[in-house]
Write a structure and sequence with these properties.
Order of helices and strands: EHEHEHEEEEHEEEHEEHHHH
Largest sheet: 5 strands, antiparallel
Shape: globular
Strand order of the largest sheet: 3-5-4-12-11
Radius of gyration: 20 Å
Low-confidence stretches: none
Oligomer: single chain
Length: 243
């Protein structure tokens, strides 16, 4: 469904209500873009990989949510079943849109809402504005979330760009077998090659540490242990075992 993005303002949206909970529509993906500052929280549940844009050639980190297109094994019975939801999903139904440029005025972004989203509903628990037209805490938090995603996206590309320069990223094919003997091969994923990290010079390691990249690298590498947990979720789904 094509979103209907409308810039938010208190005059038009004073009484608008929103559900803060992810919906099946917003959660229907098997991988979601994430930012490095989420890594400590993601590490508790999700395997983190990198994907490469065919257009730009740049890498970005993603959390793997499932094995098939649109399959999210963390979303069941209309709810997210772990305690951390990636920001790129939590930000729905909000987006940022570029403000029309005016002569002599710097380009800016405005907070917009998708009026077609299932999260925009009369019985939603969260208002965007109080009766006096001031932004609610909920709206302020979502605006901060969107800003964090903008800043984090730049940080992510700087991070992965440095990893690529040092030839630390390698392509990996994830092959798994499920309880019904079916198999799945995931391609187009990259991870940090441990062997390449071992070849880094002391100077390169210090540089990565000073940029906080070394910490993010270890988070990503440690997160790969969750691939087995993702397989277990898929097996429960195949077997019809309630989560």
């Amino acid at each position: 469904m094509t979103p209907e993005l409308t810039v938010i303002n208190s005059q038009n949206h004073l009484n608008l209500r929103v559900s803060p909970l992810p919906t099946r529509e917003s959660a229907a993906m098997n991988a979601v873009s994430v930012i490095p500052h989420e890594f400590p929280r993601l590490l508790a549940h999700y395997p983190i990989f990198f994907i490469k844009s065919q257009e730009s050639g740049r890498f970005e980190p993603v959390a793997l949510l499932g094995f098939d297109q649109g399959e999210n094994l963390f979303f069941s019975n209309e709810r997210w079943d772990v305690d951390y939801v990636p920001l790129q999903i939590m930000r729905h139904p909000f987006s940022l849109v570029r403000r029309p440029m005016a002569e002599g005025v710097p380009a800016a972004l405005d907070l917009a809402i998708d009026m077609k989203s299932a999260q925009v509903r009369d019985d939603g628990s969260e208002r965007l504005f109080s009766e006096d037209g001031k932004a609610t805490k909920f709206l302020e938090e979502r605006a901060s979330m969107m800003q964090a995603l903008v800043t984090g996206s730049t940080e992510a590309f700087n991070f992965t760009g440095r990893l690529a320069e040092l030839e630390l990223l390698e392509s990996v094919q994830v092959k798994v077998e499920f309880v019904d003997r079916s198999e799945k091969k995931l391609q187009g994923l990259y991870w940090i090659a441990a062997a390449a990290v071992e070849k880094l010079t002391a100077e390169q390691l210090v540089d990565l540490r000073n940029r906080k990249y070394l910490e993010w690298m270890y988070f990503q590498m440690a997160s790969l242990a969750h691939v087995s947990g993702l397989v277990a979720r898929k097996n429960r789904l195949i077997s019809g075992v309630a989560r």
